[in-house]
């Protein structure tokens, strides 16, 4: 399952604060967030090559939105609670809950 790449680094102030170790509440930016009628999940996994969300219709790839290890998924349907991730690190795939 190939992963899409970002063209440029993320410049969102909350991600910059997270990267610099200054973000008091990392889940203000990471995790599941609702945006009007859509959903976003952000994960910070600097060693991951790929990340997928397990859904009823199969695994959906996250987009690497920053080369330092920020991945994002966007969808119109709220994922299961708890949502399940599949992560590839150094050629090995693991499921996370």
Task: Write up this protein.
The chain is 7% helix and 46% strand. The protein has 97 residues and is mainly β. The protein has a five-stranded mixed β-sheet, with no helix packed on it. A four-stranded antiparallel β-sheet has the order 5-4-8-9, with no helix packed on it. The longest helix is centred in the first third of the chain and has 7 residues, at 13-19. The chain is globular. 14% of the residues are buried.
Please list the strands of the largest sheet in the order they lie side by side. 1-6-7-3-2
Question: What is the end-to-end distance?
Answer: 20 Å
Using only C-alpha atoms, the radius of gyration works out to 13 Å
Oligomer: single chain
Q: What profile does the largest beta sheet have?
A: 5 strands, mixed
Number of helices: 1
* Strand/helix succession: EHEEEEEEEE
| Average residue pLDDT | 90
| Strand segment tally | 9
Give the proportion of residues in helices: under 10%
Describe the global form: globular
Low-confidence stretches: none
Structural class: mainly beta
What proportion of the residues form beta strands (DSSP E)? over 45%
What is this structure, in a nutshell?
By secondary structure, the protein is mainly β.
Task: Give the SSE layout.
Blueprint: E1 4-5, H1 13-19, E2 31-35, E3 38-44, E4 50-55, E5 58-61, E6 63-66, E7 70-75, E8 84-89, E9 92-96
């Amino acid at each position: 399952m190939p992963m899409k790449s970002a063209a440029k680094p993320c410049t969102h102030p909350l991600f910059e604060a997270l990267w610099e170790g200054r973000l008091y509440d990392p889940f203000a930016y990471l995790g599941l967030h609702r945006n009007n009628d859509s959903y976003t999940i952000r994960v910070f996994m600097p060693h991951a090559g790929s990340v997928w969300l397990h859904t009823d219709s199969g695994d959906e790839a996250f987009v690497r939105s920053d080369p330092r290890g920020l991945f994002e998924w966007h969808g119109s349907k709220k994922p299961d609670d708890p949502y399940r991730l599949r992560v590839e690190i150094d050629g090995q795939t693991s499921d996370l809950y």
